[in-house]
Design goal:
The complex is a heterodimer of chains A (314) and B (238). With 314 residues, chain A is mostly helical. In chain A, 76% of the residues lie in helices and 3% in strands. Chain A has a single domain, classed as Orthogonal Bundle (ABC transporter involved in vitamin B12 uptake, BtuC). Chain A starts with a helix and ends in a 6-residue tail after the last helix. Chain B has 238 residues and is α/β, with parallel strands linked by helices. Chain B folds into 2 domains: 157 residues, 3-Layer(aba) Sandwich (Rossmann fold), CATH 3.40.50; 63 residues, no CATH class. In chain B, the strands form 2 sheets. A 6-stranded mixed beta sheet of chain B has the order 6-7-8-3-9-10, with helices on both faces. In chain B, β1 and β2 form a beta hairpin. The chains are: A mainly alpha (314), B alpha/beta (238). At the A-B interface, α8 of A face α2 and α3 of B.
Chain lengths: 314, 238
């Protein structure tokens, strides 16, 4: 079997499996998995910048929240239909990423991390500052009546699961297409050795800018969908916690693998879910698991699989 | 026709004059060797030509146009290729992908594969196409650099000590390759191995302390007593 077919089989198989689970999962896990798929879409977006381009951002909550509020504010205050609101959310995140990239990409390494973190903090504070419209930390609920897309009620569990799956499938396939395209392959080369890419005649700055816009757009799409599917927008989603989470998911699952972000999100979600059943110190369990993984699978779960078994894993 | 011309090209690093007012003119199709002792400013000079290093003064013209203000990637796009003195390949990517990155700048699809195979065969790395670049021996990584440069199909090929770390047989193959390229590709070659210089170069420029000490055919340079005494070592049997 050619590598291309294996790749198609694995990722197609994952999506088919998630579709099949829709019919068999008990309600609790069904709801969890819908949430995991939306968050994994966010992680896929984060991975484009971190895993494939090698840029460590601590400001992605800005794009996630921009998507969420870009969707929720016009929907809530202006009565914009859900479909259009999703697009305004996506546009807000992508536009913000395009602007921020112009500034942040003037730096590299630790400085890039700090600059993105600071911008995200500024974004978070902006949400709190305009509390009258954003409702700040408390947030606001999006009416079920407004969560209707093409006549489908997204507040119903079935529709919500399938919508989350559609989003995740789109993100996953977009990422897969990206890393197999010349542009994506150049991003990987930038991660490996930027100076060499430049001396092969590529405008590496433009490539990194493009990566940040794609990454921001995917993150914003996830943020917009999260607000719409779960009916809530709040400032917490713009806090630093939501910048660190996608980093952890991607590290756990395998940075620079298409499937890794999903595995990492799933793993972390259930790790916390199961350990909080056992003890109130569930973050301790999560912390120990993270340390163990860092020690024994430093390239993340999918990264380890690629290293040991499937070298073709994209 | 002059393909590459520098006028008064200079670079100083915090008081240290690395290159001082170098005028260099390389004719299209020529193989030009750049020699000189360590610290003579050879790598700094070619760094300024291909845009890795910003000059403190002077200008660079390529193909009749002033490119002094252009960033490196746009100079490369105009037809330069540069191989690094300190091997700089994509160690964690396959050999084929290393070369494909170079080829994809002006090719697409199946055309890329053809160019990759052609470039690797030309330097004798065809058998290693699927290996990870970092697993290659040092000498083979030097050859991979060369294949990456060839895949760009440059008009001006800048080679910074390409034979460093190569075996005798590989050096012989390298000489043959340069002779094969000569005439169609202009080559600027920094080289310490005098047999390579003597057998491949049309002209030789000797750099010392950032200035041009001498310039001429390999025979003239070899016969230049001052150069011979200072840089080739007296009685060099090149």
């Amino acid at each position: 079997m050619s590598d291309g077919r294996k790749v198609l089989l694995l990722h197609g198989g994952l999506l088919a499996g998630l579709f099949a689970l829709h019919f068999v999962l008990p309600a609790y896990h069904h709801g969890n998995l819908a949430r995991i798929m939306v968050l994994a879409s966010y992680a896929v977006g984060y991975n484009v910048l971190f895993g494939y381009t090698g840029l460590l951002s601590l400001g992605h909550a800005l794009f996630f929240a921009a998507g969420m509020y870009g969707m929720a504010l016009p929907l809530h205050h202006l009565g914009l239909p859900a479909g259009w609101a999703l697009l305004t959310g996506l546009g807000a995140g992508a536009g913000l990423a395009a602007l921020l990239a112009l500034l942040a990409l003037r730096t590299t390494g630790v400085a890039f991390l700090i600059v993105t973190l600071m911008f995200a903090q500024a974004g978070h504070l902006t949400i709190l500052y305009f509390g009258e419209v954003t409702r700040g930390d408390e947030g606001f609920v999006i009416d079920a009546a407004q969560r209707v897309l093409w006549g489908i009620d997204l507040s119903a569990p079935d529709a919500r699961y399938l919508a989350a799956l559609a989003l995740f499938a789109a993100s996953l396939l977009a990422c897969l297409a990206l890393v197999r395209a010349p542009f994506g392959k150049t991003l990987i080369a930038v991660r490996e050795n930027e100076e060499r890419v430049r001396m092969l005649g590529y405008d590496t700055h433009l490539h990194k800018w493009g990566a940040m816009v794609i990454s921001g757009a995917l993150s914003a799409a996830a943020g917009a969908a999260y607000g719409l599917l779960f009916g809530y927008a709040g400032a917490t989603f713009g806090s630093v916690q939501y910048s660190i989470l996608p980093l952890l998911w991607v590290l756990l699952g395998g940075a620079g693998t298409v499937i890794g972000p999903f595995i990492g999100t799933l793993f972390m979600f259930y790790l916390i879910d199961l350990s909080s059943d056992l003890t109130t110190a569930y973050m301790l369990v999560a912390g120990v698991a993270l340390i163990a993984l860092t020690l024994f699978a430093p390239q993340g779960l999918a990264g380890e699989v690629r290293r040991r078994l499937w070298r073709w894993l994209p | 026709m002059t393909l590459l011309e520098t006028r008064g090209l200079s670079k100083h690093f915090a008081g240290l004059q690395a290159v001082a007012g170098v005028d260099l003119a390389v004719t299209e199709g020529e193989v030009r060797a750049l020699i000189g002792p360590n610290g003579a400013g050879k790598t700094t000079l070619v760094g300024m030509i291909c845009g890795r290093i910003a000059p403190s003064g002077g200008s660079v013209r390529f193909d009749g146009r002033d490119i002094t203000a252009l960033p490196a990637h746009r100079r490369i796009r105009r037809g330069m290729a540069y191989t690094f003195q300190i091997t700089s390949v994509f160690a964690r990517l396959p050999v084929a992908e290393n070369v494909a990155l170079a080829a994809r700048r002006h090719r697409r699809g199946a055309d890329v594969d053809l160019a990759v195979h052609a470039a690797l065969d030309r330097v004798g790395l065809g058998a290693h196409i699927d290996r990870e670049a970092g697993d290659l021996s040092y000498g083979h990584q030097r050859l991979l650099e060369l294949a990456m440069a060839l895949a760009q199909e440059p008009r001006l090929l800048i080679l910074d000590e390409p034979t460093q770390g190569l075996s005798e047989a590989e050096i012989a193959a390298f000489k043959a390759l340069v002779r094969e390229l000569a005439g169609t590709t202009t080559i600027l070659l920094i080289e310490h191995n005098m047999s390579v210089v003597m057998e491949t170069a049309d002209r030789v420029t000797v750099l010392d302390l950032g200035t041009v000490l001498a310039e001429g055919t390999p025979r003239e340079i070899h016969g230049n007593a001052a150069v011979q005494a200072a840089y080739l070592g007296t009685g060099a049997d090149a």
